[in-house]
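Lecture notes, part 5. Sequence design as translation. It can be helpful to think of inverse folding as translation between two languages: the language of shapes and the language of residues. The source text, in structure tokens, appears below.
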């Protein structure tokens, strides 16, 4: 009888262990399923890392273009360069345009097609900085709206850090013209010579 009781207890313990393992396996499968569906990727840190990696993959392209710009001749009326950035909100495409400006904030145009002076120009066109996971539009929108202010500030800081790094590698600090990095519909710009954020008013009062 005692032997049968011991066998019964052993079987109960074995069953409990198998049940625990099954529960863990089930939970693991559920977690993997959520990962496959993209449910856990919508974090601020993951979003920032994705954008940072996509920006860095375009560094050589930006450095080449900035080096080209530094070797251009500009009209004497041009007193500053405004590198204006914009992000297309539905395709997450970054574009950068360089505007040749006078001190009053007017764009300087060269109407003579044979002019030796450079006009405003595209620096980068429509580079994708984020890929929205297929079928996750609503979840991503919910995530973005919930943390929009923090995400926008993070985007600007990452763009600034990336641009400044490329600017320095393209000998930007030796460039004679005052130059700014600005953001579409924003109140501030980054002074590339002084290395600091400034207000829009300060941009035209140097």
């Amino acid at each position: 009888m005692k032997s049968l009781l011991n066998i019964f207890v052993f079987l109960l313990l074995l069953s409990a262990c198998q049940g625990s393992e099954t529960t863990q396996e089930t939970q693991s499968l559920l977690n993997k399923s959520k990962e496959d569906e993209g449910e856990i990727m919508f974090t601020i840190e993951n979003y920032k890392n994705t954008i940072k990696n996509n920006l860095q993959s375009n560094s050589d392209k930006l450095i080449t273009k900035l080096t080209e710009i530094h070797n251009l001749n500009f009209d004497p009326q041009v007193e500053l360069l405004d590198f204006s950035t914009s992000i297309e909100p539905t395709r997450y495409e970054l574009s950068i345009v360089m505007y040749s400006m006078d001190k009053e904030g007017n764009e300087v145009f060269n109407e003579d097609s044979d002019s030796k002076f450079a006009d405003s120009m595209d620096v980068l066109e429509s580079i994708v900085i984020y890929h929205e996971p297929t079928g996750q539009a609503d979840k991503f929108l919910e995530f973005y709206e919930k943390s929009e202010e923090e995400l926008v500030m993070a985007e600007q800081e990452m763009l600034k850090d990336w641009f400044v790094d490329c600017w320095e590698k393209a000998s930007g600090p030796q460039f004679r013209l005052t130059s700014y990095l600005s953001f579409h519909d924003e109140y501030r710009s980054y002074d590339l010579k002084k290395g600091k954020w400034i207000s829009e008013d300060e941009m035209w009062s140097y």
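The translated text above is only one of many valid answers, since several sequences can fold into similar shapes. Residues 93 and 126 are 5 Å apart (CA to CA).
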